[in-house]
Specification:
Blueprint: H1 2-20, H2 32-60, H3 65-71, H4 75-103, H5 108-136, H6 143-154, E1 159-171, E2 174-183, H7 189-206, E3 212-219
Parallel strand pairs: 2-3
Antiparallel strand pairs: 1-2
Helix pairs in contact: 1-5, 2-4, 4-5, 6-7
């Protein structure tokens, strides 16, 4: 994020400075070397982008690209795709700036291309920061998944009700789940142990990423059942 943000800011600054202090002779030099460098860079970045995009499509499956990015718990896959996409677009902006600057003898177009590249990089930095901040702060599952986990807990016959459920991703494919479970009065320790195993089984059947499930359990006497929330 810092690389994109700082790089975008410098590119934006240089583009504005170029347009403010442009020299007419800036478009008179031979652009052949520029085209060669940009062409080679596009070949390398194009290959990198194709590999990253294949991995991205494989990871997202049938989900839309933006839906996958919003819900992904492993930012490494879409980070590479966004990085390579920004690089390809940046090279196209640079190529357009050089080409049209010489075509129309307009030195401002080169600076405008630099400004466009800066805005592009800063936009990518914003997207990465926005999509990664929740993971850095300890993101949990969405509401629909939380409700489904709760229903799988209460589906166990020995469970009276499920209280508060806390979840947090501690890795791309590692979900921590803390459950407050109230069991029906009168069950034995053996029945409670079996019920806990069934709870874990029910959850992991659908959510195998739940690597750690902690259950705070209690069997209530009839007069204290209302305390379980």
């Amino acid at each position: 994020v810092s690389i994109f943000g700082i790089g975008g800011g410098l590119s934006l600054y240089e583009g504005i400075a170029h347009m403010r202090h442009v020299a007419p002779e800036a478009v008179l030099f031979d652009p052949t070397v520029n085209y060669i460098v940009l062409g080679l860079a596009m070949l390398v970045e194009g290959w990198s982008f194709s590999v990253a995009f294949k991995q991205f499509n494989k990871a997202r499956g049938s989900k839309g690209a933006w839906s996958y990015i919003k819900g992904a718990k492993d930012p490494s896959v879409f980070t590479v795709v966004l990085e390579d996409s920004a690089a390809m677009l940046g090279l196209l902006f640079a190529l357009a700036g050089v080409f049209f600057g010489h075509l129309f003898k307009n030195p401002y177009l080169d600076g405008a291309a630099s400004v466009a590249i800066g805005l592009l990089l800063m936009s990518v930095a914003f997207i990465l920061a926005f999509e990664s901040k929740s993971l850095l702060l300890g993101e949990g599952v969405d509401d629909s998944t939380l409700k489904d986990i709760k229903s799988r807990v209460t589906a166990v016959p020995a469970v009276e009700r499920a209280g508060k459920i806390l979840t947090m991703y501690i890795g791309p494919h590692n979900l921590l789940v803390n459950l407050d479970v109230c069991f029906k009065p009168g069950i034995t320790d053996a029945e409670m142990h079996t019920a806990i195993q069934n709870i874990e089984k029910n959850i992991r059947e659908v959510y195998p990423e739940c690597s750690r499930i902690y259950i705070e359990s209690q069997a209530l006497a009839p007069e204290s059942r209302q305390e379980c929330t």
